[in-house]
Amino acid sequence: MTPEIAEQLKTSLTELVAQDGGAIELVQFTDNSIEFDLLLGDEGCADCVMPKQFLERIIFEKAQSICKDLKSVTLNDPR
């Protein structure tokens, strides 16, 4: 995975959580994995953001369409 692909994935995931008050931070990536932190700005809206497993599945599916060698996506969710 290239840095450009990692940033593209971060942007896609950010769009999913931004309207619910969340943000995404890229932690690290390798050729076949990527890790993000989910940042929640407003405690009251923590339940508004989609569950971790759902977000991981969505980003994994999007990522695999871009990076065929991807084997894992990790989302560190503070909830």
Please give a handful of descriptors for the protein shown.
79 residues, 3 strands, GMP Synthetase, Chain A, domain 3, alpha+beta
The total number of structural domains is 1
Helical coverage, percent range = 25-40%
Biggest sheet descriptor: 3 strands, mixed
Q: Care to count the β-strands?
A: 3
Give the termini separation. Answer: 28 Å
CATH class division: Alpha Beta
Output the helix-strand order: HEEHE
| Percent of sequence in beta strands | 25-35%
Over the alpha carbons, how many angstroms does the gyration radius reach? 12 Å
Strand order of the largest sheet: 1-2-3
**CATH fold category name:** GMP Synthetase, Chain A, domain 3
Structural class: alpha+beta
Q: Shape, please?
A: elongated
The CATH architecture designation is: 2-Layer Sandwich
Low-confidence stretches: none
What is the name of the CATH superfamily?
Answer: Fe-S cluster assembly (FSCA)
Overall residue-averaged pLDDT value: 85
Count up the helices.
2
Task: Give the SSE layout.
Layout: H1 3-18, E1 22-29, E2 33-40, H2 52-66, E3 72-76
Parallel strand pairs: 2-3
Antiparallel strand pairs: 1-2
Commentary on this structure:
This protein is of the alpha+beta class and 79 residues long. It has one domain (3-76): 2-Layer Sandwich (GMP Synthetase, Chain A, domain 3), CATH 3.30.300. Helix content is 39%, strand content 27%. It is built from two helices and three strands. It has helices at 3-18, 52-66; strands spanning 22-29, 33-40, 72-76. The chain has a three-stranded mixed sheet with strand order 1-2-3, covered by helices on one side. Strand 1 (22-29) and strand 2 form a beta hairpin. The longest helix is centred in the N-terminal third of the chain and has 16 residues, at 3-18. It is elongated.
